[in-house]
């Protein structure tokens, strides 16, 4: 026992790796076996044993000369194992909660699948005022006050109008054999009735509408140009996942269209030249009869029309060339990761970054009498090489690690900004004083209550 404390004092005095290694070799069996009995999992027992010896390295200077190290290690193992089991139970509870939430989400998806095919026909059976109220409330997510302003009525009246309209909609669905509560219908419609339009559609509509207003294109040409632009948007999306054979077919079609346009343009240019020659010949005549003058004006009008058609064809040819270039680019572009897979990979990366940050803080504290760092610069050498979280995380604890009563429940590092998941919820990543990291999700982006339960406030005056 005396020899144990001699090695501890040697480690404290000179940071002797040999002295600490001897202590580990001497007591690892006791620590690991005790951890394994309490954790009942080999991997978790290994983590507990590692944590116990990290604590020994941190607290070695505070151990008194009469300390019986084996007893101290056994007691510390019990504390760490208890915290680890508590963390595991919390994690299992969170996983169960996530599973239940996914079940609810699936139920909501099934409900919408039943509602969607009948929604618009059911809405058409409502009166104009009732339909308007439901569109404003559940399609555009307007408040009662906003609905009242739009429909020029009192706020209370607007609320009653929405409730009555929703009840009428429920009755229509019931007659169609779909029995759902008004609350379920409202939730499903509010969550799914309006989705984002395809990429590029708005720009195509704006272009075609403005062209129609200018009177430059005929309706057929407007539709052609609009379809070309819509095709560009469709290629941008579909090309990301389409097979190579589909892309080759699209490229072949573009080349054929380009050839047709070139032939049309060449014919127009030929006709244009012939008409211009006729006009010049007519203009050079000494005098023009009334019929000749009318023919001249007609020819000039045809020339102007042909010039406009030529300009339209040039525009279409340029658009066709742009689409061909885009298709060639898409043929060589790598297929993107599925959005859910990309979000999962991002979450894992953030959790890993937070865990690496917590380990850096723990190692820094071990070399600084337990004191946590206050900025990333002073602990740069303790980070894993290439750690990318410097600008993404904030310190939440600046005291001594030895003063933290429950490391597994105490946040020491948190992500600065929350980010939105594919389901529309908000998420942030946290690292705890025992070295583990967690992803926490809220529906509204408010993390204050959850964080306050896991933060140690700074001393008064700081």
Account of the protein in words:
By secondary structure, the chain is mainly alpha-helical. The chain folds into 4 domains: 2-94, RNA polymerase sigma factor, region 2, helix turn helix motif (Rna Polymerase Sigma Factor, Chain: A); 125-192, Arc Repressor Mutant, subunit A; 239-332, Orthogonal Bundle (Helix Hairpins), CATH 1.10.287; 339-452. It is built from 14 helices and 5 strands. The protein has helices spanning 2-14, 17-39, 42-59, 69-124, 128-139, 144-151, 155-175, 182-192, 201-214, 219-238, 244-283, 290-332, 339-366, 448-452; strands at 393-395, 411-415, 419-420, 426-432, 437-442. Strands 1, 2, 3, 4 and 5 form a 5-stranded antiparallel sheet that branches. A hairpin with a 4-residue loop joins strand 4 and strand 5 (437-442). Helix 2 packs across helix 4 (69-124). The longest helix is centred in the N-terminal third of the chain and has 56 residues, at 69-124. The radius of gyration is 37 Å and the shape is elongated. The two termini are 43 Å apart. Residues 216-226 and 228-247 have low confidence and may be disordered.
């Amino acid at each position: 026992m005396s020899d144990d404390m001699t090695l501890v004092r040697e480690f404290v005095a000179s940071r002797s790796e040999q002295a600490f290694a001897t202590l580990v070799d001497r007591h690892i069996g006791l620590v690991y076996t005790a951890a394994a009995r309490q954790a009942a999992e080999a991997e978790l027992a290994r983590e507990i044993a590692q944590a116990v010896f990290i604590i020994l390295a941190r607290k070695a200077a505070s151990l008194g000369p009469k300390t019986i190290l084996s007893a101290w290690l056994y007691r510390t193992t019990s504390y760490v194992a208890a915290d680890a089991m508590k963390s595991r139970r919390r994690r299992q509870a969170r996983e169960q909660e996530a599973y239940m939430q996914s079940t609810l989400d699936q139920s909501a998806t099934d409900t919408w699948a039943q509602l969607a095919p009948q929604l618009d026909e059911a809405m058409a059976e409502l009166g104009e005022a009732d339909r308007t109220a439901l569109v404003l409330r559940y399609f555009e997510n307007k408040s009662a006050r906003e609905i009242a302003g739009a429909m020029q009525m009192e706020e209370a009246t607007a609320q009653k109008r929405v409730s009555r309209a929703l009840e009428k909609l429920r009755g229509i669905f019931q007659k169609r054999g779909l029995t759902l509560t008004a609350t379920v219908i409202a939730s499903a419609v509010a969550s799914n009735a309006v989705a984002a339009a395809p990429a590029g559609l708005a720009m195509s509509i704006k272009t075609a509408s403005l062209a129609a207003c200018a009177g430059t294109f005929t309706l057929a040409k407007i539709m052609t140009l609009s379809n070309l632009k819509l095709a560009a948007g469709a290629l941008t999306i579909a090309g990301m996942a389409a097979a190579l054979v589909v892309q080759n077919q699209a490229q072949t079609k573009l080349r054929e269209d380009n050839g047709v346009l070139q032939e049309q343009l060449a014919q127009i240019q030929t006709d244009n030249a012939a008409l211009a020659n006729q006009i010049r010949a007519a203009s050079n005549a000494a005098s023009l009869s009334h019929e000749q003058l009318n023919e001249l004006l007609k020819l000039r009008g045809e020339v102007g029309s042909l010039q406009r058609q030529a300009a339209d064809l040039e525009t279409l040819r340029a658009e066709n060339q742009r689409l061909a270039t885009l298709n060639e680019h898409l043929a060589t572009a790598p297929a993107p990761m599925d959005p859910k897979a990309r979000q999962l990979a991002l979450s894992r990366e953030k959790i890993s970054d937070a865990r690496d940050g917590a380990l850096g803080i723990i190692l820094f504290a071990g070399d600084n009498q337990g004191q946590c760092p206050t900025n990333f610069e002073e602990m740069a050498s303790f980070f894993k090489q290439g750690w990318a979280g410097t600008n993404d995380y904030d310190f939440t604890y600046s005291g001594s690690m030895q003063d933290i009563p429950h490391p597994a429940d105490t946040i020491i590092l948190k992500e600065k900004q929350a980010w939105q998941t594919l389901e529309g919820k908000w998420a942030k990543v946290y690292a705890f004083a025992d070295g583990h990291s967690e992803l926490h999700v809220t529906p509204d982006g408010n993390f204050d209550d959850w964080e306050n339960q896991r933060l140690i406030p700074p001393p008064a005056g700081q």
